Amino acid sequence: MSGRVRLVLVRHGESVWNVEERYQGQADSGLTAAGLEQAEVAAAELLARFGTPDLVVSSDLPRARDTASAYLRHLDLDAELDARLREADIGTWVGRTFTEIAEEYPDDLAAVGRGVDVRRGGGETFAEMRQRVWAALVDAGNMAAGGATVVVFTHGGPIRVAAAAALRLPSPGHLNFAPPVNASLTVIGYAGRQQNNSVVEYNSPTVRAADAARTD
What PROSITE patterns does the annotation carry (predicted)? Predict the structure, then answer.
């Protein structure tokens, strides 16, 4: 690879469960009307800032694919779908409200806050999510020539762990990063799996009403 690849990570638009303050994980509740509008605004900003990308990759979950669709309508490109870019697997917590989980699992949430990598709801650890997400981004980066732009539609959790992985912060280094807002942009300068990658931009909102709801 000659030169860095620009990885532009886009969080999906507002979903129904974002509004209802429910954990989503790898389930899906669909974009709200506001989420669909956010996807259109994000598409316009992507086009204005980065022009036509060399590659578009998306999580295969509907809320990410539907956000990508608003962008792809302006391009002669299809998105490569990659299940490794999904949100965290949170097991039995899926669909439960933040309040319910806080009442039933206070010890688990306290442990997460201390940096303990617990299996929330019996799902995967943050380290496991980080490994699969970074592997997907490495593959995307290696598919593109140096100087290329790759736009990646994904979720809040994957964006946080990707930023930590790019800077080679020990897990759970993602806790240093705020949850990305809906339809925000994060830019990683990718030089190679074990190279000096960089976080050029983090959590830049594309819409004023973007919500900093919990990432998963």
Answer: PG_MUTASE
128 is catalytic: no
Q: Report the alpha-carbon distance of residue 166 to residue 191 in Å, rounded.
A: 10
> Do 121 and 54 touch, CB atoms closer than 8 A?
no
* Burial group, residue 106, by CB count within 10 angstroms (0-12, 13-18, 19+): exposed
Of the residues 14, 45, 87, 124, only one is catalytic, namely 87
pLDDT at 170 over 60: yes
**CB-based contact 59:24 (threshold 8 Å):** no
20 is catalytic: no
Answer whether residue 145 shows pLDDT above 50: yes
pTM of the model: 0.93
CATH label, 5-204, candidates 2.60.120.1440, 3.30.420.10, 3.40.50.720, 3.40.50.1240 = 3.40.50.1240
Which residue in 31, 48, 23, 41 sits closest to 179, CA to CA? Answer: 23
Q: Which amino acid type is present at position 107? A: D
Confidence of residue 147 (pLDDT cuts 50, 70, 90): confident
